[in-house]
Design brief:
Layout lengths: L10 H11 L9 H5 L6 H11 L4 H14 L3 H6 L2 H8 L6 H16 L8 H5 L6 H12 L8 H10 L10 H11 L5 H14 L18 H5 L16 E11 L3 E6 L10 E2 L25 E9 L4 E11 L9 E4 L10 H10 L10
Parallel strand pairs: 1-5
Antiparallel strand pairs: 2-3, 2-6, 4-5
Helix pairs in contact: 1-12, 3-4, 3-9, 9-12, 10-11, 10-12
Length: 363
Amino acid sequence: MTITTLDTPLAKPLLDWYDRHHRDLPWRVAPGMAARGVKADPYRVWLSEVMLQQTTVQAVKPYFERFLQRWPEVTDLAAAETDAVMAAWAGLGYYARARNLKKCAEAVANEHGGVFPDTEEGLRSLPGIGDYTAAAVAAIAFDRQAAVMDGNVERVISRLYAIATPLPAAKPEMKQKVALLTPADRPGDFAQAMMDLGATICTPKRPACSLCPFRGACEALKFSDPELFPVKAAKKEKPVRYGAAFIAVTGDGEILLRRRIDSGLLGGMTEVPTTAWTARIDGETSASAAPFDAAWQASGTVIHVFTHFELRLSIWRAAIATKIDSNDGWWEPVTNLEAQALPTIMKKAIAAAIPLAFKTSKG
């Protein structure tokens, strides 16, 4: 969403605040850098925005830096092996992002000569880029007057205007308000300032309203309690699903792994053999569902919370003398597990059966 109005009086105090109090982030061109003529790198902006979706800044920083070390340009990422990208992403969650990251890099390299489109419309045409990411990259990387709204911005805008409509129904109204606030001058800094304000001042609990550049205009502060906003619809209780995971270890210290199908939850990631659980149905939980006959020993239960459900896996471990031929996987040294595309739930399962597995892994 773009606008033409220049009547954005609230932008100045926010930008003044941002100039003094912005966060230093590895993907960001800070105001002082911009003053010296440093330009934002669209590749870095795009990579960080994809990584930051539903993930914290602190969790993203080391992943971002490792990706840049390994694939410093979008063309390098486009040429990378998909399995290598998935392995490098392991632990960040929401693995469809990693698959789309690779597809988007390939599209930029092969269809756009390695150069990102510089408009929201052009960015939205790329694989895996939706309205939010298109707006964020357009504003931050290309200074387009685009309305950028993430969770932090939703909180700021809902309090600034005391928007009583519950989320997610309030999103269109919030987006319109953000669009009206976004200035033609420094729209990228404005977007990042709104994010920083929500992350550091306008926090979910105990916001530091006395330090906020919007404190004189904030309707929630004037007439209500900022912590009551944004209003959220009642959450549905997450269903609990059950399954089993099987960790087979040879005397040489190798473990049986396999690759999940590309589509669906954890698509394309590496796993130990598990039963057929999904977000909607339970899998078997007993040793009778093991991939082969062995002296399987119970090794406890691990719990992992996904966006829409909670998973509880019964862990079974078997020590076997020699590798068993498998058409559905391969045997990997335990010392090499960190190099595999193992999602967090699978690391939990392996650690339950082999407590020191990731302390001895080479990485």
